Backbone:
């Protein structure tokens, strides 16, 4: 049975780490830290060991929930959804970060197949890169994530991932999610060098009481990953106490 993220807030270290030794060190150091709610597993480990073996190695280190980020799953032919989610279920991941930008049928396919497999679809569609959308010189229309969210919610998704750097967008998306989903879970990502701040993003997403921060290098490259994770969680608690 898939594990669920507990509580109303927490830190999710992103394990996009090239060194297996560093990977193990970070998980061992942080898995017992108050406020560390789970982990995000990425392709750096999966390309080396495979998904099932990566999950086995991670499960030797922690019992916390694990999101798998395929960098990014979902922009594919809809009929790939069943094959992909079946392999993820076999590996016993707990949630899948999905960017189904290939269209409405891709949203339907990946969200519904994840739910059918007992895995939480964590739906997004925008990364914290300045030239991602058309207005910044990119290729996707600026309201792509708005459309994806609407379709995903119709398919019963209730977990979402939002880029933290643009607080106006985070507020708009969070307000919409809160108005259309009962007890949603929002993951915020892209802190530090990617432009997001805990103070800005956490406050902007306040319409959704259950907020988690996916944090990579601020933790994984810190001299003391446990202290870094604890500090970030302390900031989150302080903001929550201040009414953010």
Residues:
């Amino acid at each position: 049975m898939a594990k669920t993220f507990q509580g109303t807030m927490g830190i999710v270290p992103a394990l996009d780490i090239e060194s297996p030794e560093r990977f193990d060190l970070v998980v061992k150091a942080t898995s017992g830290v108050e406020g560390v709610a789970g982990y995000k597993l990425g392709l750096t480990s999966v390309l080396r060991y495979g998904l099932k073996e990566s999950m086995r190695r991670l499960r030797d280190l922690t019992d916390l929930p694990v999101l798998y980020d395929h960098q990014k799953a979902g922009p594919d032919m809809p009929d790939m959804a069943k094959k992909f989610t079946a392999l993820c279920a076999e590996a016993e991941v707990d949630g899948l970060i999905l960017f189904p930008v290939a269209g409405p049928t891709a949203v339907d396919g990946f969200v519904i197949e994840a739910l059918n497999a007992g895995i939480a679809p964590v739906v997004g569609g925008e990364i914290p890169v300045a030239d991602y959308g058309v207005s910044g010189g990119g290729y996707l229309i600026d309201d792509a994530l708005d459309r994806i969210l609407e379709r995903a919610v119709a398919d019963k998704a209730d977990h979402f991932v939002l880029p933290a750097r643009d607080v106006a967008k985070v507020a708009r998306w969070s307000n919409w999610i809160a108005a259309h989903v009962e007890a949603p879970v929002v993951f915020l990502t892209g802190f530090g060098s990617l432009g997001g701040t805990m103070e800005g993003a956490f406050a902007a997403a306040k319409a959704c009481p259950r907020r988690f921060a996916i944090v990579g290098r601020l933790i994984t490259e810190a001299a003391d990953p446990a202290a870094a994770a604890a500090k970030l969680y302390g900031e989150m608690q302080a903001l929550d106490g201040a009414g953010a």
In short: The domain at 9-241 is CATH 3.20.20.70 (TIM Barrel). The two ends are 33 Å apart (CA to CA). Residues 123 and 179 are 17 Å apart (CA to CA). The longest strand covers residues 66-73.
